[in-house]
Amino acid sequence: MSPPLKVAIIGAGLIGPRHAQSVLSNPSTELIALVDPAESGPATAAKLQTQYFPTLSALLYSSAKPDAAIVCTPNHTHVSISKELLSAGVHVLVEKPVSESIESGLSLLRHARQPENAHLKLLVGHHRRFNPYVLKAKEIIDSRALGQIVAVNGLWATFKPPSYFSPPTEWRRSRASGGVIPINLVHDIDIMHHLFGPIIRVFAEATRKQRSNPPHDANEGAAITLRFSSGVVGTFLLSDATPSPHTFETGTGENPMIPQAATTAATGGGGVADFYRIFGSDACLSVPDMRRWSYDGREEKSWTQPLALETFDVVHATPFDVQLRHFADAIRGSVRLGCTCEEGLRALVVCDAVRRSLESGLPVDVGLELE
Ligand SMILES: NC(=O)c1ccc[n+]([C@@H]2O[C@H](COP(=O)([O-])OP(=O)(O)OC[C@H]3O[C@@H](n4cnc5c(N)ncnc54)[C@H](O)[C@@H]3O)[C@@H](O)[C@H]2O)c1
């Protein structure tokens, strides 16, 4: 067995310690350091029983050099920190979004592709790819149990209270930095890329505004059409201003802050609210209730025939743990890297195209040559 991978956590705010727990619970990784200039940094490192460094340079010049690092700092620092780590020969898992802008993301991509860095892994932390419901949906799609995929219908509709947009996080209500597209849609775009391949065209119509402007000038929602290079088409409804159980978080229960909305027999259900419906030539699947409807066992497929229902079980797993396992396996060469820098950038480019479509009122072709 190879020695444990030495991992450092860069940034110990909300999400850094969660990654640290994954490192601590994985027998093939070892938490060797935590970097954070904040006053709380030394106490967080002590709690995790690891070495503390106030800056990344202090870590890289010490004898505690890591094999890999997980970058959990604010978005605008992702590119510079990831470049510094790669230049020091350290594999990087950088939290999403990969970069604050498309230009800076491209500069990171160029840096990662330089011959001296090409052997290093750069994984973007779109951890929902490792959510068990998404893993199962991909397995079902890839097994062709739905036939050829024709279309997808996605929902992310919920209600965020005024406190979510209040200082010190008023950036969330600003058009320049916040709103529902960069904060929420980016996750679903990455999952749809993962399931159906690249999106090549979008068109978006804004939802009617529910909050006063000013101070709330960020986008609240949109109805979006999507065209994928594979020929799949999709629609996606996005809103943070309507009470509803139809979001990834509410459906999967993945985020401990957001209760899972399950219907019970008493409320006329017996399942969770779906957020994706995937339609194929042989069957359709809804996620995360994992119900597949088909004409299996019938002589012909016809809307006049009763549909057969099959439900798939999903085994619980913590996506951050599964993502770390994947990162370690990719570094050791036993699996192909999942969400690359290119793919992290693709999600940003599609979000930018949605924003441009809202502004222009026109469909927007998604153009980004990365290969
Ligand atoms: N995958 C997810 O679901 C998910 C969830 C939350 C946050 N995130 C991402 O994780 C990142 C961090 O988010 P957060 O909510 O933990 O932020 P946060 O503000 O709570 O924490 C960021 C930490 O980084 C530290 N920091 C700032 N500059 C630094 C530097 N140069 N070197 C080392 N440390 C530095 C800060 O002191 C702070 O403690 C963001 O990019 C965010 O988008 C992802």
TrEMBL record:
InterPro entries: Gfo/Idh/MocA-like_OxRdtase_C, Gfo/Idh/MocA-like_OxRdtase_N, Gfo/Idh/MocA_Oxidoreductases, NAD(P)-bd_dom_sf
Domain Gfo/Idh/MocA-like oxidoreductase C-terminal span(s) in chain numbering: 138-366
Taxonomy, superkingdom: Eukaryota
GO molecular function: nucleotide binding
Domain Gfo/Idh/MocA-like oxidoreductase N-terminal: 5-116
Protein name according to UniProt: Gfo/Idh/MocA-like oxidoreductase N-terminal domain-containing protein
Lineage, opening ranks: Eukaryota, Fungi, Dikarya, Ascomycota, Pezizomycotina
